[in-house]
Amino acid sequence: MNYWLVKSEPDCYSFEKLAKDGRSMWDGVRNFQARNNLMKMKVGDQAFFYHSNIGKEIVGICEVVREHYPDPTDESGKFVVVDVAHVKPLKNPVTLQLIKSVPKLQNIALLKQSRLSVMPITNEEWNEILSISGDSL
DNA sequence: GCCAACGTTGGC
DNA sequence: GCCAACGTTGGC
User: Fold this and answer.
1) Pairwise CA distance, residues A68 & A49, whole Å
2) Reduced to 3 states, what is the DSSP secondary structure of residue A73?
3) Smallest CA–C1' separation from A56, nucleotide
4) Per-residue pLDDT tens for A51-65?
5) Which strand C bases fall within 7 angstroms of a protein CB?
6) Is the dihedral of CA A6, A14, A133, A55 positive or negative?
7) Which nucleotide has its C1' atom closest to residue A53's CA?
8) Which of A37, A73, A100, A102 is the most buried (most CB within 10 A)?
9) Residue A89: exposed, middle, or buried by beta-carbon count in 10 A (0-12, 13-18, 19+)?
10) Could you say which nucleotides of strand B lie within 7 A of any protein CB atom?
């Protein structure tokens, strides 16, 4: 199983909305690197849900429930979506500011490639963030 | 609202 | 295939 981090502006689609909806199609990705990551996602992979711009924090966990298929909102036919389901909110959201201050998280893609919206997370980073948030493994 | 970072486009 | 111009993202 692999771990990921997906970003959304809460104004556009928030984790609270996902909690309410139960599951959602992750559409609108228009970046090749992000698309390539979407295409690597497998059913059962888990992802942190990060709120960009507003909040700037990891707020919860979601899970891949359907692997990539063509994005119906993309007319060029180049991009894909996956379906994700709500898993649970983090006990305490982990802010960008906090991530920047943690030595073990200095190489996280979120800091290295701030504009990428779908990125892989290592096991170590996943566990570290869970631990910081106060969630048990 | 500004600006840095960076991906994409298009002319050559 | 290079590179300048342009557009977008996202932190501040």
Assistant:
1) 18
2) coil
3) C11
4) 999 999 999 999 999
5) 8-12
6) positive
7) C10
8) A37
9) middle
10) 5-8
Any idea which nucleotide's C1' is nearest the CA of A115?
Answer: C9
CA of residue A132 to C1' of nucleotide B4, angstroms: 29
Q: Are strands A3-8 and A118-121 parallel, antiparallel or unpaired?
A: antiparallel
Within A 29-88, residues with CB less than 7 Å from strand B:
31-33
Summarize pLDDT for A68-115 with one digit per residue, the tens: 999 998 888 889 999 999 999 999 999 999 999 999 999 999 999 989
For the record, the structure tokens of A59 come out as 């707020």
Look up the pTM and report it: 0.93
